[in-house]
Design a protein that fits this description.
Layout: H1 3-6, H2 11-15, E1 17-20, E2 24-27, E3 30-37, H3 47-63, E4 68-73, H4 79-91, H5 95-115, E5 119-127, H6 132-148, E6 153-155, H7 158-168
Antiparallel strand pairs: 1-2, 2-3, 3-5, 3-6, 4-5
Length: 191
């Protein structure tokens, strides 16, 4: 067999990430500039203010038509655990265990309610075939446009990006603690 058939793809290869750059992520299809935008609690805003926020978002989208937006939970979800507990509760014949399962479900419901407003928004801009200094200018321009429309925005750091990826792939809630190279924390490397 040839070496290429035996070579296994890494997770980075499969999702197309080459590595971190000064401004974001390098991928097979160009560099990604990543920004977080703080959510606004629209449930406390008047209808007029909600309309203004929508208008401001439309202005961002018209100014940067290729921008991509992702909304995710900023922490893990409990849906799979709750589904499992509900299935177990339906099958359980022992009354005491049924009570315990019900209490576990109530606990997860309370926890989920506490973090239900913990959303994070990520805005992504793809930079293809442009020079290094143009990437820097694009990053500054995008951040300025979003900020001028009244949104609290900041460029994602390497640790922010790692945490976001960890949440997406359900690997850790502490992305900043994920090493750059898997397993490197187990070795003492002499400098």
């Amino acid at each position: 067999m040839s070496r290429t058939k035996n070579k296994r793809n890494t997770t980075r290869d499969l999702i197309g990430i080459k590595g971190f750059t000064e401004y974001g992520l390098s991928t097979n299809k160009g560099e990604l500039l990543l920004f977080t935008v703080a959510p606004t609690n629209i449930s406390v805003l008047s209808q007029a203010n909600v309309s203004i926020k929508i208008h401001h978002l439309m202005m961002v989208l018209s100014s940067i038509p290729d921008i991509e937006i992702s909304c995710t939970d900023s922490s893990e979800r409990f849906d799979d655990n709750k589904q499992y507990l509900h299935e177990r509760l339906a099958e359980e014949t022992n009354l005491n265990i049924s009570k315990l399962l019900s209490k576990d479900i109530e606990f997860l419901d309370r926890m989920q309610l506490e973090i239900s407003t913990a959303r994070q928004f990520m805005f992504v801009v793809r930079c293809k075939n442009i020079k290094r200094e143009q990437v820097f200018q694009t990053a500054n321009r995008v951040e300025k446009i979003i900020s001028e429309q009244g949104f609290e925005v900041h460029r994602m750091s390497k640790d922010d990006i790692k945490r976001f990826i960890a949440i997406i792939f359900k690997t850790s809630m502490n992305g900043e603690k994920i090493p750059d190279v898997d397993g490197e924390q187990y070795f003492e490397l002499d400098e």
